[in-house]
Write a structure and sequence with these properties.
The chain is of the alpha/beta class. It has two domains: about 5-95, Ribosomal protein L30/S12 (60s Ribosomal Protein L30, Chain: A, 2-Layer Sandwich); about 110-245, SPOUT methyltransferase, trefoil knot domain (Alpha/beta knot). Helices cover about 35% and strands about 20% of the residues. It has eleven helices and ten strands. The strands form two sheets. A six-stranded parallel β-sheet has the order 7-6-5-9-8-10, with helices on both faces. A four-stranded mixed β-sheet has the order 1-4-2-3. The longest helix is centred in the middle third of the chain and has 13 residues, at about 120-130.
Length: about 250
């Protein structure tokens, strides 16, 4: 049985202020939790799961003997879950140490300028992982990667992509030696670009695109040709389309 104080403590991790203070975050679901446990990227503090999940994952649990595994009833899981429909297991993980430096030479680096929707952030992290992008640079105003919705959307990719939050103008100025590309409605068609071995690719805010200050530091604008009448593309969709052509 989970005590009331412990229930409140886990519920508090749905809020960024408490996640930052405690240096913890939560992950949920029978696919996501084992995936994060397997990556070993985050130390797992405790797991709360129904009996069936614990029995099915007995071998995995034995390899994490320093983690507290707790059998709970579904109604208890429901109380601590951030999901509309709780799903078998919830785990509390320690955050990784913040990334302080990213090497941009000889690789593709993805940059997000104020991506605020947690769903987009989670999906972009997953897309980056799919295309082998190991470094993601975010403006300070971007969604928190440890937001439960972001964590859920990454489906484990959170443990395989390095994320740096920083002032983008300063960071881009510090990386002048690498060509900078930006997703834009006005630029060269995507088919004009071949495969890139090196570059910084910027994706802008869902509503306002890339800020003027950041755009001034861009070398090439990339446009995804529009055939229909849609005003714009979802940021995560645009990221997937661009990476599928240049990586």
């Amino acid at each position: 049985m989970i005590s009331k104080p412990h229930t409140k403590y886990i519920q508090s991790l749905q809020h960024k202020k408490l996640r930052d203070e405690l240096n913890l975050f939560i992950a949920e679901g029978p696919k996501l939790v084992p995936e994060l446990l397997k990556t070993g990227a985050f130390a797992c503090k405790e797991v709360f799961a129904v009996k069936e999940w614990l029995e099915e994952n007995e071998k995995l649990l034995r390899s994490h003997d320093s983690t507290s595994f707790n059998e709970v009833e579904f109604f208890e899981l429901e109380k601590i879950s951030a999901l509309t429909t709780p799903n078998q297991v919830l785990a509390v993980f320690e955050k990784r140490s913040p990334v302080v430096d990213i090497e941009t030479k000889g690789s593709i680096t993805l940059v997000l300028d104020t991506i605020q929707d947690p769903g987009n952030m989670g999906t972009i992290l997953r897309i980056a992982d799919w295309f082998g992008i190991r470094h993601l640079v975010c403006s300070v105003g971007s969604a928190d990667i440890y937001n439960p919705k972001v964590v859920q959307g990454t489906m484990g990719s959170l443990g395989r992509v390095n994320v740096l939050y920083t002032d983008l103008v300063t960071w881009l100025q510090q990386n002048k030696g690498v060509k900078v590309y930006a997703a834009s409605l006005q630029g060269k068609g995507l088919s004009s670009f071949g495969k890139l071995k090196e570059g910084i690719i910027i994706i802008g805010n869902e509503a306002h695109g890339i800020s003027d200050e950041v755009m001034q530091l861009v070398n090439e604008k990339i446009t995804i040709p529009r055939i229909g009448e849609a005003e714009s593309l979802n940021a995560a969709v645009a990221t997937g389309i661009i990476l599928s052509h240049v990586v």
